[in-house]
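BUG: 3D viewer hangs when loading the predicted structure for this chain

Environment: internal workstation, default settings.
Expected: structure renders.
Actual: progress bar stalls at 90%.

Input used:
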Amino acid sequence: MRLLTAAQMRAVDTHVIENVGIPGMILMENAGRQVAEVAATFLEAGKGRKVSILTGKGNNGGDGLVAARYLHNLGYRVRVFLLARSREFTADTLANYQICGQLGIDLQEVDEKYLPKLRFCLSLTDLIIDACLGTGIKGPPQGIVDQVIKLVNDLEKPVLAVDVPSGVDATTGEVLGSCIRAAMTVTLAAPKTGLFAYPGAGYVGKLYVANIGIPPYVLDMASQGALLEAPLVKRFLPERPPSGHKGTFGHVLILAGSVGMTGAATLAAKSALRSGAGLVSLGIPTSLNDILEVKLTEAMTIPLPETQNRSLSIEALPMIQARVRHMDALILGPGLSQDPSTGQLVETLLQDVSCPVVLDADGLNLVARLGVLEKRTNASCPLVITPHPGEMARLLGCSIQEVEADRVAAAQNAAELYRCTVVLKGAGTIVAAPEGDFWINTTGNVGMATGGTGDVLSGIIGALLAAGAPLEKAAGIGVYIHGLAGDLALQARDEISLIAGDLIEALPQAWQAIKQEEVKESWSYLV
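Structure tokens produced before the viewer hung:
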């Protein structure tokens, strides 16, 4: 499913109205009808008959007025509270305001003096519909709108938001001031990127996607973003022919581990094996080999020259070069340490190898310190990097706050700058390609915020690359499956007790759920 920014949605509306010939009134009619249907379904489930609708001056307010008309015609007790004067309304919103008046719907203008009465009225309602601001918000809510949002949140009544909760930046998910906490959001035509980016995503509630009559090809033309969904992930999966053998499905080399960090190497290797790799070889410092031979049964270990600190040394380069030319993918980074000699090794390998590389964890920190990615040439290896926000901030030379303020833009900037596929980890993980395309993940949970889960992700992506998946598809599948495994693992555990190894145990179930189309997405489509 396509994702749109606020600007892209405005461009889509303009194109459809001016070039396709669908009047704005029809789009508003379709939007309001869908909002009313969701509201009625909620109310029919024993939630009452009284609806209060808060409307602003723009087209979002017009959508709310259309919903008022449909709910009124269905017999619900509807009151509309206007947070702007009618002379400020857009033309289509004004037309619907006048229709509501002709139908005898209760329309009440709200100013500061009316706020105490508004509080009382809303305290008696069964559902509040938020049609205040929509996608056009610029900066924090001001004046009466700001006061009403705070009043609504204080009442803790169920709220249905139209398009986006008022106060959420539809593009970035940023919450600059007061913001409606919705129980449900009906987003129009396509989800907005800000609905899946935190903190805004935490205000959305149950998400419904309303078809308002915009042709799908217009949405496809307008957007470079999409949600990672189970059907899309299934289509991305590399083929596994019945005649295949271990060589068919690829050989992954993992360079990982240092003293105290054998767990990172183990998790990456096990997750690669559980994600379809035909063969996995693990290159580790010599002194750690005996430990990892005990920890791992199915993976092969390669003891390599080490530094005095027991991390991989630049002296291991000839042995690695001899091996890596026969590999289908390389995972570089889990638990490597920050040793300068290890940094030299990472820098040289990124310029030298030709197979696809997953660069993670200590590997990312080393290249950020050494400026390695800036030196990559067009002939360098195909690359996937998997930073968390702190690592991304170091790569981009900015603050973590700047990364988190617009995660999609941060991922796109890094992908373009370093000519690689970027996986920006976190709630709503972003996958970005150098050409500007991006995907937002919808699986995963807060229980995965624990050490080692990133190593599991690297192993999954490495296995997919070894099986022949293109960079963006390997990253997208890997991110989705990783989160899905976390969600499945959580079914038998509390989020407090989830550990990285639980994800590996859940991977077989996750792969099966994708293939058998058993995954239920967290949003609903409205026809």
